[in-house]
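User: These chains co-purify. Model them together.
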Amino acid sequence: MPHYYFHTENGDRIRDDQGEELPDVEAAREEAVTVLGEILRYRGSAFWTTGSFSVIVTDDAGQAVVSVTARASDKPPEGWKLKKAGA
Amino acid sequence: MNTNPVKPQITNLVEKLARRDAVTAAEAEALQDMLGPSRDVRFGADIVSQHEHPLHSTLLISGFSARYSTLADGSRQITEINVPGDFIDLHSLLMKQMDHGVVALSDCVVASAPHAKLIRLTETQPHLMRLLWLDTIVDAAIHRQWLVAMGRRSGLGHLAHLVCELYLRLQAVGLADGMRFELPLTQAVLGDALGLSTVHVSRLVTELRGEGVVNWTGGQVEIVNWHRLAEIAEFDATYLRLQNEPV
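Assistant: Joint model of the two components:
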């Protein structure tokens, strides 16, 4: 089974030197989004200070295979508009 | 492994029960009399399996085990970690069919008491049976605290709570050396106990170490700052019922 490493980036970078054996990249995706959710869950409004949190997955060769990022902002995402109720 | 042949089977159990109320010599003898010979269970093997109908209840004499349930996708949730002196499926005496399994988290030594003998004890040793009943009540209290931790505690608070609990439970059975104890559990096993990913557990262990609260290397844990650890965990030991009060 391939070995994947899950690094995090939220201003400071935490390197994962241990990694995990997972069957495939799909399982690595699942783990990445789980890790992101678990860590963000108790960040509270402090998350607005860093503004962004990423989990970056690398393989044995150190190549980034997938990543997932959450962002906090006082503005809505680019192009987002709330439709009028009932419209 | 039976490399310590001198340790009587009931040492840890009696030590724990005696923390709550005095155990008489006759009661200790009655406990010893109902146990069969010790046997080894290898790391990773089930001591009792889900849906089994055991005809005996099994006492953990050495090593660590865990109650667990698995989901269809293969993920496992550990619902309690057992330490030596735990009667891991005493409730099967009345539950009959196991609603969960118990797996060895290390090489373990166990011994079993036939249900027929336990039933007889309910008639001949009512005080001892109340002590054993209390132990299953404490199991339920542990499950409640785990539920609270799982639902509401932060990852760090949850891990700190587990460390506090295991320390006090091991200390109660004489298996802590000062503030140090053996905890031969992988981060994957801790993840299954905390309901967290291995990656997150590994970061939490690093964080707890970094705060100077614990020294945690390999399978050895030393609590450097109990006060701070208990504060992070918001730990209240009431549920472990380790005070001496007649039952």
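Chain A touches chain B at residues 6, 8, 14, 16, 18, 20, 31, 34-35, 38-39, 41-42 (CB under 8 Å).
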